[in-house]
């Protein structure tokens, strides 16, 4: 008997790519892989975040834990995270910030000496490592001087505001971590995918509608999926992916007494991903890292003794997993 | 026949009513004129406050059978309660004619609700005044429920109770306050709530919180507690100087082991665990140091130490404020503003939460839809839709109740819109969302579409101050009552939860005899008593101390314990001694009875039913 091959050759097509945003198609695979990728991107791609804070002076209005929590949530540039060590696995130190392999030290010193309220922002953090710095959110397209929202010209994340005489002085240690342990280490703001819809309009049934009815039916979708051709007055699909599987048009067709007017199916093997990052790593890097980590996890399964024992149970699949 | 009693003529209505100003009689008014006068005073009160103060209370008590004494009572004194109503008896020439009325006069006034109706007055008692808005009949707390007119009324009552238990951003000046206990929420905000049973962890009003949202700061809060230490109140004033012998000072003995400062006070920001000292007081008379230790089961941070420097020479009074972080944990209580309270049953990671395919949103909180049908809190659903629409459009939505009744008055200003739900649904539709607030979500665990549409939207949730860390109770063994040797009650003292009569009944009904015996006897006041089978007494038994014989040491083994000899004091023999297991309270009962000259005897037998 010819052993059945479970191998799939998934394809990725990038639609849009910015530093903190990516939209791509993932085809020829199934929901398990798509969701595994989503879950790994959110919870298991490592980044660097402040994990230990030693407060020397804090006379601000916020208490120590509050400031420490806010510091933890500041995204730090984490391109180095994949090659860094977890401080719990580091044999060079005990994770106190003395070791370059597992930790990065930050200092923050801010005193307000003016009558105006002073913002202490993430850009006031002084890093011991120039590769690990707070993410710069200042938009180059907006003129820094015309930013009238907060008067915050530096474009950092506000940590605390100080009035005259108040002071914050602290030492913080950033470590590598994953989103599973704490959400501050999650590099993803949003990772989502949708199934690609397949829309078939029953043309014959559609032509039995008047123009008014067609308009009414097209309007029934909250998102612009369908439109009417101004010339031929035919209903056409303008943006299939705008469909949110809300079934509004199907319900509308049934209400109009025309069931089967349109048939919409979700393709089970193609997904459209949307990835937004916190800025800690680039969206493209997030995807590559996620695939790398997924591979490592599969390797762990493959080499595990349990898997070899379970060969009887899984048979060919087990052999396939080990590269058979 | 001539009646013996003089003929009594019933007095008619008084022709003159007395007028009192701030409690003093200033004159009288013919009762036929008084209503005109009252109307005139009210007109002047509204139109020319320079002549008549606008907070004048015109308490006109009309003539009535068995009612209050009639008269015109005018009050001008300060610090009276007043509230605004609209005077509709005056010609409205563009102005609102707002009149301030007091509690005394309002019971004799005809004030109608501005719902378009007349409140059943018809033409017999025409209304002279009108409320500004229908919601003024609600209290301040009741007014905080959005669209309370869409809720079943008991739920609104529950919410009014619950609103008082919420944690909030209660003060901007926490730094400078010394409250006994203050609950503080770090960031008040509306979580995204999803209804739908996702796993079984949301049954019976439990809810699932998104762990990642909590890690990002949702519902974070703390409790501030202030401990006041006043040395002058501790007694022991010396006669000469009038000063106490006490002062704040650290012990010189274990100077380095102590986390306290040299002045006996803690450092700001220091962590103090239960039973650790937070303050040390030196007594110069006795040359001793007393330390105050933190009670409770949870560690606290020292938030602030305030010293009272009224007494310039030496420090006598100190306020130490502690801060206890209280971030959400399983068992904490939360509630929406519709009497829908529940307890957090799980903290789930972001990735396991269902997500929206289009927006990628994950809910912060999941509740079970069974919370709705029986309770009929429709306003909560409306709040969710409205908040969703409002956040999409970036605007606030007015959720004042009794919208329909107000609309009748200024119909022109309102658009053609029909029902409230239509307005809210259109808001969602304009932004490409489902009209009813439903969304298609995908399972966070499997990545597959959830087969039903799910109602999701932001709802304001309150963190209630009932937290498990204040309530949890646990005991395996511990202190027992001195008298009965039974476990004590009370969470503070490490006591147990009572296994009472009803619990006993249920175990009996189940036939769980062994468990019953275990709970009520073995784990309670198990006791082996020596009973004299001859006289049946369990109180007359005495131990006879065995004469100490030289015990031979056998190869390093501890000396064998000499057997206890028990005899009956009454029978002067140890022949009939038997060991019987019984609850210790039974022995206590026997002694109590003995104190009342009642003898309690036991008949011992090996046969059942003997
Ligand atoms: Zn290290
Ligand atoms: Zn006896």
UniProtKB/TrEMBL annotation, chain A:
Residues 21-304 form the DNA-directed RNA polymerase RpoA/D/Rpb3-type domain. SUPFAM superfamilies: Insert subdomain of RNA polymerase alpha subunit, RBP11-like subunits of RNA polymerase. Pfam families: RNA_pol_A_bac, RNA_pol_L. It comes from Stylosanthes scabra. Keywords: DNA-directed RNA polymerase, Transcription. GO terms for cellular component: DNA-directed RNA polymerase complex. PANTHER family: DNA-DIRECTED RNA POLYMERASE, DNA-DIRECTED RNA POLYMERASE II SUBUNIT RPB3. Belongs to the archaeal Rpo3/eukaryotic RPB3 RNA polymerase subunit family. InterPro entries: DNA-dir_RNA_pol_30-40kDasu_CS (IPR001514), DNA-dir_RNA_pol_insert (IPR011262), DNA-dir_RNA_pol_RpoA/D/Rpb3 (IPR011263), RBP11-like (IPR036603), RNAP_Rpo3/Rpb3/RPAC1 (IPR022842), RNApol_insert_sf (IPR036643), Rpo3/RPB3_RNA_Pol_subunit (IPR050518). This is DNA-directed RNA polymerases II, IV and V subunit 3. It comes from the Eukaryota.
From TrEMBL, chain B:
It holds the Pfam family RNA_pol_Rpb2_7. Residues 495-603 form the RNA polymerase Rpb2 domain. Keywords: DNA-directed RNA polymerase, Nucleotidyltransferase, Nucleus, Transcription, Transferase. It is found in: Nucleus. Its EC number is 2.7.7.6. GO terms for cellular component: DNA-directed RNA polymerase complex. One of its GO terms (molecular function) is DNA-directed RNA polymerase activity. It comes from the Eukaryota. PROSITE patterns: RNA_POL_BETA. SUPFAM superfamilies: beta and beta-prime subunits of DNA dependent RNA-polymerase (SSF64484). Residues 26-83 form the DNA-directed RNA polymerase I subunit RPA2 domain. It is an enzyme of class 2 (transferase). Its main location: nucleus. Residues 197-493 form the DNA-directed RNA polymerase subunit 2 hybrid-binding domain. Belongs to the RNA polymerase beta chain family. This is DNA-directed RNA polymerase. It comes from Stylosanthes scabra.
């Amino acid at each position: 008997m010819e052993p059945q091959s479970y191998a799939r050759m998934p394809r990725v097509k990038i639609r849009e790519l910015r530093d903190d945003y990516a939209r791509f198609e993932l085809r020829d695979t199934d929901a398990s892989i798509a969701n595994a990728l989503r879950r790994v991107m959110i919870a298991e791609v490592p980044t660097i975040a402040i994990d230990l804070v030693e407060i020397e002076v804090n006379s601000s209005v916020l208490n120590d834990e509050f400031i420490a929590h806010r510091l933890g949530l500041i995204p730090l540039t984490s391109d180095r995270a994949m090659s860094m060590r977890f401080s719990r696995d580091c044999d060079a130190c005990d994770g106190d910030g003395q070791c370059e392999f597992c930790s990065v030290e930050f200092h923050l010193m801010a005193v307000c000496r003016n009558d105006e309220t002073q913002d202490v922002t993430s850009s006031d953090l002084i890093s011991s490592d120039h590769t690990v710095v707070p993410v710069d959110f200042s938009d180059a397209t907006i003129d820094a001087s015309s930013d009238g929202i907060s008067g915050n010209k530096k474009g950092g994340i506000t940590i605390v505001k100080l009035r005259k005489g108040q002071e914050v002085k602290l030492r913080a240690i950033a470590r590598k971590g994953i989103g599973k342990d704490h959400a501050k280490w999650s590099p993803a703001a949003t990772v989502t995918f949708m199934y690609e819809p397949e829309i078939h309009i029953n043309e014959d049934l559609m032509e039995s509608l008047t123009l008014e009815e067609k308009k009414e039916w097209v309007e029934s979708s909250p998102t612009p999926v369908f439109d009417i051709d101004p010339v031929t007055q035919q209903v056409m699909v303008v943006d299939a992916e705008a469909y949110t599987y809300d079934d509004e048009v199907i319900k509308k067709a049934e209400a109009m007494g025309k069931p089967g007017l349109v048939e919409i199916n979700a393709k089970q093997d193609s997904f459209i991903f949307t990835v937004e990052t916190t800025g800690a790593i680039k969206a493209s890097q997030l995807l590559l890292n996620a695939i790398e980590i997924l591979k490592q996890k599969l390797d762990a399964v493959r080499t595990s003794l349990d898997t070899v024992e379970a060969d009887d149970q899984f048979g060919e699949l087990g052999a396939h997993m080990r590269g058979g | 026949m001539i009646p013996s009693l003089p003929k009594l003529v019933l007095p008619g209505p008084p022709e003159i009513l007395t007028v009192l100003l701030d409690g003093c009689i200033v004159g009288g008014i013919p009762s036929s004129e008084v209503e005109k006068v009252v109307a005139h005073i009210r007109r002047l009160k509204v139109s020319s406050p320079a002549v008549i103060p606008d907070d004048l209370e015109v308490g006109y008590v009309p003539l009535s059978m068995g009612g209050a004494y009639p008269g015109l009572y005018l009050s001008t004194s300060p610090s009276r309660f007043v509230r605004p109503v609209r005077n509709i008896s005056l010609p409205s020439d563009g102005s609102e004619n707002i009149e301030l009325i007091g509690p005394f006069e309002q019971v004799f006034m005809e004030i109608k609700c501005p719902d378009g109706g007349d409140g059943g007055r018809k033409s017999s008692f025409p209304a002279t005044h009108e409320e500004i808005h229908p919601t003024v009949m609600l209290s301040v707390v009741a007014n905080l429920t959005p669209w309370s007119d869409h809720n079943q009324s008991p739920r609104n009552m529950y919410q009014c109770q619950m609103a008082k238990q919420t944690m909030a951003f209660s003060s901007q000046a926490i730094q400078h306050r010394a409250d006994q206990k203050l609950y503080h929420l770090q960031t008040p905000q509306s979580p995204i709530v999803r209804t739908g049973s996702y796993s079984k962890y949301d049954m019976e009003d439990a809810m699932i919180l998104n762990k990642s949202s909590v890690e990002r700061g949702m519902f974070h809060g703390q409790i501030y507690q202030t401990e006041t230490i006043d040395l002058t109140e501790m007694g022991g004033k010396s006669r000469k100087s009038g000063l106490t012998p006490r002062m704040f000072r650290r012990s010189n003995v274990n100077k380095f082991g102590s986390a306290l400062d040299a002045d006996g006070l803690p450092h700001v920001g220091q962590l103090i665990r239960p039973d650790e000292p937070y303050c040390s007081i030196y007594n110069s008379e006795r040359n001793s140091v007393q330390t105050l230790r933190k009670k409770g089961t949870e560690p606290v941070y020292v938030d602030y130490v305030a010293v009272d420097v009224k007494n310039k020479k030496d420090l006598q009074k100190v306020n130490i404020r502690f801060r206890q972080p209280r971030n959400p944990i399983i068992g904490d209580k939360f509630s929406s503003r519709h009497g829908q309270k529940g307890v957090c049953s799980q903290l789930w990671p972001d990735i396991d939460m269902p997500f929206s395919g289009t927006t990628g949103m994950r809910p912060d909180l999941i509740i079970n839809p069974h919370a709705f049908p029986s309770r009929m809190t429709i306003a909560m659903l409306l709040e969710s839709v409205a908040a969703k629409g409002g956040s999409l459009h970036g605007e606030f939505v007015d959720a004042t109740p009794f919208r329909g009744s107000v609309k009748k008055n200024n119909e022109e200003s309102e658009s053609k819109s029909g029902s409230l739900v239509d307005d809210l649904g259109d808001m969602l539709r304009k932004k490409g969302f489902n009209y009813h607030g439903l969304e298609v979500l995908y399972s966070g665990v499997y990545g597959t579409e959830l087969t039903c549409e799910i109602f999701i939207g932001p709802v304001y949730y309150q963190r209630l101050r009932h937290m498990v860390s204040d309530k949890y109770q646990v005991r395996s063994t511990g202190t027992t009552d001195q008298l009965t040797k039974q476990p004590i009650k009370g969470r503070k003292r490490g006591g147990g939860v009572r296994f009472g009569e009803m619990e006993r009944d249920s175990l009996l009904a189940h036939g769980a005899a062994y468990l019953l015996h275990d709970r009520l006897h073995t784990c309670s006041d198990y006791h082996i008593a020596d009973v004299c089978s001859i006289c049946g007494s369990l109180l007359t038994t005495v131990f006879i101390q065995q004469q100490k014989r030289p015990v031979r040491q056998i190869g390093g083994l501890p000396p064998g314990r000499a057997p206890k000899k028990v005899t009956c004091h009454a029978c002067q023999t140890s022949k009939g001694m038997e060991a019987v297991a019984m609850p210790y309270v039974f022995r206590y009962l026997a002694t109590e009875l003995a104190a009342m000259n009642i003898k309690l005897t036991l008949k011992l037998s090996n046969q059942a039913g003997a």
